[in-house]
Amino acid sequence: MGRSSGERLEARDEATGDRPERPVNGVGLATVDSEGRGRRQPTPGRSARSAGEPKRVSASLAGAASVMGADGALELADLARRWATLVGDDVAAHSWPVSLKSGALALGTDHHAWASELRLLSGDLVARLRASGFDIASLTVQVSPWEGRGW
Predict the structure, then answer these.
(1) What is the pTM of this model?
(2) Is 58 buried (19+), middle (13-18) or exposed (0-12) by CB count in 10 A?
(3) Domain extent for 77
(4) Do 22 and 41 touch, CB atoms closer than 8 A?
(5) Closest among 143, 81, 71, 149 to 106, alpha carbons compared
(6) 78 and 24: one domain?
(7) In whole angstroms, what is the distance from residue 85 CA to residue 79 CA?
(8) Strands (E), 1-151
(9) How does pLDDT run along the chain (151 residues), one tens digit per residue?
């Protein structure tokens, strides 16, 4: 019986010492030389250095959040975690960060009196937050007693 086309191609490649490039485990292309040694090439669009090296998840989160339309989500999470330290226990007991988009921080509070107080303190709060490394240009306050921490 005759050989299949695949067998004929393999025989031709062995005779000429030529091996085609082919995908290896979906990562990149491998070139096999005439002696059967393989050499991996990076996938197009990826650098040779990063092709085989793992990345820390935290290094990819900001990009992933941006792709999903959640710019500022990581900064907001960090701000919420440090809120009491940054603004003091009294203010933190009655307010919380709600959103942060393009430098505009929205705060929630549990009472109208605290909303007025936060609006009066807004200049000082923005300055404190900027001094702590947050890129905040403006601050708005909304009363939302049922949406506070833990509700």
Answers:
(1) 0.55
(2) exposed
(3) 66-147
(4) no
(5) 143
(6) no
(7) 10
(8) 22-24, 28-32, 38-41, 95-101, 104-109, 138-143
(9) 566 666 766 666 666 665 555 554 545 555 666 666 666 555 555 555 555 677 777 666 666 655 655 566 788 889 999 999 999 999 999 999 999 988 999 999 999 999 999 999 999 999 999 999 999 999 999 998 766 655 4
